[in-house]
Amino acid sequence: MSSLFEFSPVKLVYGGDALGFHAGRTIFAPRVLPGERAEVEEVRRQKGVVHARPLRILEPSSERIKPYCAYFGSCGGCDYQHLPHESQVKAKAEILRETLRRLGKVDWQADIPAHTGPAWNYRNQAQLKVGTNPGGAPALGFYEAESNRLIPIDACPILSPRLNAVLTALRSEPWIIALAHCREVEVMADDRDEKVMLSLTGSWNTQEGESLAQKLLAELEGASTVALVQDSAIKVFGEPFLTYRVEEIAYRVSPGSFFQSARFLLAGMVKTVAGMHSGGVAMDLFAGVGFFTLPLAMRFEQVIAVESHPQAASDLAANAGAASRKNIRTIATTTFDFLRRWAQMKPDLVVMDPPRAGVGVATLKLLLNLQPRRLHYLSCSPPTLARDLGFLLSHGYQLDGLELFDCFPQTYHIESLARLSRRD
């Protein structure tokens, strides 16, 4: 097969590529839409599959639109700017459905309702990379897709206005010179898009690091917290944490703790995941800082929240205490160890929001011993959700509903909620 060939994909698949066939081989290529005819170039072969990159669109789809961002196609952050937002959501629902069927033998035929919001300026967090531009000067931006090559950027249209203002400032002198010892700058804005927490990963001597942190706090508009991350140590300057409010609940979020990044969907996500049922005992596994724990405590007599990350577990305990909820028990351990060692109560509801690796069969086996009545599984990875749902459906549970949260417009990422109940 020639390294240059024509390609017409049949569908979009998880990961941002379009899938099709040529000369008896399976082809994956980004930024091409089903039904289009494109000239592509082979990049690599892996396990008999050809990965290609598009050179020209020979016959465009009627759905193709002009990407909003000038960096689309070079920056690795977005995958679908050539597709209207409404079509992105529909495509993701079908990708989710197909992934569950193919990997988990979960044949969901009903609708997959989608929770959507504005498709731009939606992110309250970003991980900015520090490197050099082609001329060797220090620069700030994101990595190219499947690469560690830095793409310097002026602005990112999926970031909130405050984060874009921070990006504009940091990429300019004198800040970009001061960041020479950094590898990454993680930024998070609060719910009002006013205050910003910055976590800088790199190498400094004590005096250099402290001077940079104090300068950021004094001179960078919005900066309220600066954390210096060096090796495994974190030193925090300014306010010790960021306060993020979702309706009536205020969450403490410290440097290093996970928090949802889709700022327009947070209230709806809380209501859908944690606000649909009430009862005696609820468990919030992989609880983070307590995003679902606190609203669950308003509806259940007792809530047990489990989190293993040290900083997030500390925030979880602090948030539970600040809410003055006596019905919350926080446990700083892994979900697996909690279920193996301490779990005894039979819960009415279990909420699970695991990282991309999913819950895992070993942990689910322990969970089944408790026979929870209902499970709400929020997933950011359709492949691991498929694996875990396949196991649960073969061990006494039924899938009552599947919903999509469009937390990451313009990208291939999919956040979904599976609601399950125990079969009688």
Give your account of this protein's structure.
By secondary structure, the chain is of the alpha/beta class. It folds into 3 domains: 4-64, Beta Barrel (OB fold (Dihydrolipoamide Acetyltransferase, E2P)); 125-242, OB fold (Dihydrolipoamide Acetyltransferase, E2P), CATH 2.40.50.1070; 261-422, 3-Layer(aba) Sandwich (Rossmann fold). The chain has 10 helices and 23 strands. An 8-stranded mixed sheet has the order 7-22-23-21-20-17-18-19, with helices on both faces. Strands 10-9-8-11-12-13-14 form a 7-stranded mixed sheet, with helices on one face. Helix 1 (85-104) packs across helix 10 and helix 8 runs parallel beside helix 9. The longest helix is centred in the first third of the chain and has 20 residues, at 85-104. The protein is globular, with a radius of gyration of 23 Å. It starts with a strand and ends with a strand. The mean pLDDT is 95.
